[in-house]
Amino acid sequence: MDASKSEVLHDVPPYIRVYKDGTVERLVGYEVVPATLDPGTGVSSKDIVIMAETGVSARLYRPKSTPTGEKLPLVVYFHGGAFCIASSQEPKYHASLNRLVAEANVVLVSVDYRLVPEHPLPAAYEDAWQAIQWVTSHASRGGDEAWLKEGVDFGRVFLAGDSAGATLAHHTATRAGKADQELGLKLRGMIMIFPYFWGKEPIGLEVTDPFRKVMVDNWWAFVCPSDRGSDDPLINPFVDGAPALEGLACNRVIVCVAEKDILRDRGRLYHEKLVKSGWQGEAEMVEIQGEDHVFHIFEPDCEKARDMVKRLATFIKQE
Hints:
Elements: H1 3-6, E1 8-12, E2 16-19, E3 24-26, E4 44-51, E5 56-62, E6 72-78, H2 91-104, E7 107-112, H3 123-140, H4 146-151, E8 152-162, H5 164-178, H6 180-183, E9 189-193, H7 205-208, H8 210-223, E10 252-258, H9 264-276, E11 282-288, H10 295-298, H11 303-317
Parallel strand pairs: 6-7, 6-8, 8-9, 9-10, 10-11
Antiparallel strand pairs: 1-2, 2-3, 4-5, 5-7
Helix pairs in contact: 2-11, 3-5
């Protein structure tokens, strides 16, 4: 065997391994399931390409049935995976989103953005922005996706995501605030599920758990080897150069954190600073006791996961 093919260049447990010859081995999050009718929820799904120039796709979901002519809220969802694993076709995400669509009675676009290391950051952030522009084309410029054109109330559009996907939702919402007239779409709200924000100086659990602090430091150093490290504005929304929180292009936000999650205190801080900023909106905070990061993806049938999905559905349904 060629030594270069067996030599590991980057080992980022438990996610990914990159070899010297450029081979990328994803250790988790690489499984896929086809889009289909889900018998448990009655939710239908299909895959489409939304950006031909980059090949970025999305999995679209719609609930079992709605009265003729009724328009449903739209959720634009960004999956997690530390920017380097998972996809909109990953089985656990597919199952989770089937449940959310059924519970909230929404149309949902799950964006399959490009991943590191094949596509270095900020590619994922650009894909998220292009995705919301693609959605907007159906509201103002006659996009051609029937599930959106015929079934969506574009006055009720939500951004959502978990972990790295919540980070993408935040950056998309702040960018939309700056380009509101250009975008031509007013976002109703944003759903932040265990957001992946970070920083150099430890806070909260990070102080008492230096092992996990270093682990997350290393994850970010792999996906974004910038001079600013964990204080890069792409991951730390509170540093110089980060978009101002008061510019969020929505008037309602819900932030979910988990008691045992090493990212917990960053989510708390985000909620706190958002409330204290000049942003003119309402922010809710939900903390799930006794659980860790994205537990609802790994244990979707547990009582706390079901309760959280119901809480998110209530947030979407509120007028």
